[in-house]
Amino acid sequence: MNNSQLTNDQQQQLLEILGSKGLLLETADRWTYGYDNSRRHCTPLAVALPTTVAQVVAVVALCNETDLSLVVRGRGTGTAGAAVPVAGGLVLSTERLDRIIKVDPDNRVLVVQPGATNQAVQQAAAEHGFFWPPDPTSAAVCTIGGNLACNAAGPRAVKYGTPRENTLGLRGVTGDGRPLRTGVYTTKGVVGYDLTRLLLGSEGTLGVITEATLKLTPLPEARRTLRALYRGTRAAAEAVARIMAQPITPCALEFMDEGAIGMIRNYSEVTIPEEVGALLMIEVDGPAECIEHAATAVAEAARNSDCLELTEARNAQEIRALWQMRKALSPALRNVAPKKINEDVVVPVSRMPDLIDGLNDLGRRYGITIVNFGHAGNGNIHVNLLVDPDDPNQMGAAAECLSDIFNMVLALDGTLSGEHGIGLDKRDYVVRETDPVALDLMHRIKAQFDPTGILNPGKKLPPL
Amino acid sequence: MNNSQLTNDQQQQLLEILGSKGLLLETADRWTYGYDNSRRHCTPLAVALPTTVAQVVAVVALCNETDLSLVVRGRGTGTAGAAVPVAGGLVLSTERLDRIIKVDPDNRVLVVQPGATNQAVQQAAAEHGFFWPPDPTSAAVCTIGGNLACNAAGPRAVKYGTPRENTLGLRGVTGDGRPLRTGVYTTKGVVGYDLTRLLLGSEGTLGVITEATLKLTPLPEARRTLRALYRGTRAAAEAVARIMAQPITPCALEFMDEGAIGMIRNYSEVTIPEEVGALLMIEVDGPAECIEHAATAVAEAARNSDCLELTEARNAQEIRALWQMRKALSPALRNVAPKKINEDVVVPVSRMPDLIDGLNDLGRRYGITIVNFGHAGNGNIHVNLLVDPDDPNQMGAAAECLSDIFNMVLALDGTLSGEHGIGLDKRDYVVRETDPVALDLMHRIKAQFDPTGILNPGKKLPPL
Questions:
Q1: ipTM surpassing 0.90
Q2: pLDDT digits (tens, 9 = 90+) for B399-452
Q3: B191, A416 Cβ separation under 8 angstroms
Q4: A84 plus A105 within the same structural domain
Q5: Which helix (H) or strand (E) holds B72?
Q6: Which residues 134-173 of B are in CB contact (within 8 Å) with A?
């Protein structure tokens, strides 16, 4: 495979397919399509900006025929390097395939092209009283295609699920350039094997998604947000387990450890008492008449002897203020450590205290500040190693520390990634988690969808 | 492949693996493992009754090595013939692999072997205040393995989803006898491709499920059941669409047409006025404090100018009485037409009136009584053609009528099966619905999981 430069013939054919406005060849233009939020970078040979599905099919077919690797990207908000064209070749950006094709409120369905942003979908759905549950923090800019390719979720997943629970069907193109339709337009369907969910979370390695049929959920009438402050992590984790054991499932149950709280104290105007060692943001939604009861039920479960304070926001402004703190966290972390290592491991909810204790131990042992926050209701914790990339000693220690973290997560019956995906960053750790027979089958499945191996080569699965 | 008799060698090896108590060889014993609720029958050469996963692995390996086909069955409640060993060979019954391995309420997880009944799982979960949402009508006898293999759901799916939305991971054995582990023990996980959902609904053609990690849901505190009677189908379908457009999703939304109501009138003690042309059973659940509001909200959406009566059951006894009528339906139908053709098509909720009108037209045209009921909230309608199997003319007409029904369903953006599966009965219709590239990939995937084609041959997918 020659992916270090385009042949004249390839370039000519791409121009014929896409027109000069649909193909970026200048270095400066191509450069900006070479990175994502993993902070890796590789400039692609060219960038295809198709406006029609026929163009996508033709581009994939050309790549397949001429052995050119192809990386599909939305807006590059992924953190694991899945959109970085490390094997060279072509980048296909879905940005011009951004149409909302249909909103069908009678059937709770929305049909959309991959390049539409999550926010555009939410707005279109909201006009009819609905929403689409997956809500990554980057919802304002990230695309539906990226959400689907990574099975990216967000806080609401604890109540409403991930894309896998909220997608009915897909259209796409296989690696050998064949248009493909999967799934159904209904909420039930068992004809054939479930190729829809096979494509969801496959990070562009099995096919190019060109259209998705999304399952909508009615917007809740009311919302209540609570903030609970705890003396320490164990108390907060205990509260999470109690909240999840009673029948009112919150629509968000977010956690911050001491380190994360410290970040906010230093980098925003939020005031939190010194003795606070952990924090939960808890949100419930539902019918207006029941919201008081729901808030009371989760508040009761959240209270324990080490709960220092429980604040309830009762209107939009108060809710915004509480969330602002949570949203200030990621930028604050970037300020302190621009190249922080950000993982998104998951453990069973009851094992969260063990995870946090273990992370603190590892941080001390390796001399690395580790800051933890995330979607506690799913046990999905964002583990941030604050390291200086210019210090080779620290980077070496961080690599060893990360390896120990992953082993600990697996020993706690957890998984290495809840929503960020594997990309390049976690690829070499997959063998520690995944059953060898399952891994063999994944490679075999990849070979059926993409026989020449052009789709996002080197990503998602460890090399054979 | 010689599946017409066991060789001495095969028999000897099976005895070594299973012991004499774990292998049925007598004709009378084998006979009862030859049918399911499709009313097809083929006696298998032998029946394996493994008690350990190691035995399952050894049996599959032997079948693979000696080219013996293998049909896995739970309790044979499936209606599409998936458990009938039409290719001869061996039947493996999971009835002795029925252990509930773990109930983990802190993490909302239950781990179970495939032979446990749905009811056993519900009871074990209920002791801790939880339930597992899938609830086929046959829950008292059907097995979890069968539920997973068919992705079988039931009334609650409208609110809580099918096995695909309620299963975290699986253990199993591939067709070439390799033990396999898929998925996670957490509610999020994106490492590797989603093999769990690929196996769910694959009807025993990709692997033998030996263990499942199920996601539990807290039992609701309260429940309210409503029965609404309508002048005709359009009015009922309109009510369904209105109910599904407001934010309170019912936990059951069941429909019966005029023909189904007639059955109950004649074959039970229930009294329903003559002018009633359609009926809805609507159930809501949730916190006790909110249940009144929920019932009021759905009742409001259910009422329209052609709603003749709306009854609300307020205690367990009243609820039971309302459901008794719904449950009397299937046996009543069997009384009238022991070999009724029972389909479970799905259409988008808004197309239900068109479906029912179309079915009535087709019934008249072919001179066949068609009775319809089912899970209206999912648009999943059980279409029953009441035919006399001894009348060749009528059976010929029924085949043509069925073909027209399937075409109509697909024209309405529907799917051929919502939960019964394909088995043998619908296998030849799959090509009408499934995209040819998707079908090609399904066959290729099958070949990876089951290279010698021993697992449930001839089922689920149309022959190549």
A1: yes
A2: 999 999 999 999 999 999 999 999 999 999 999 999 999 999 999 999 999 999
A3: yes
A4: no
A5: strand B70-73
A6: 150-151, 153, 157-158, 161-162, 164-165
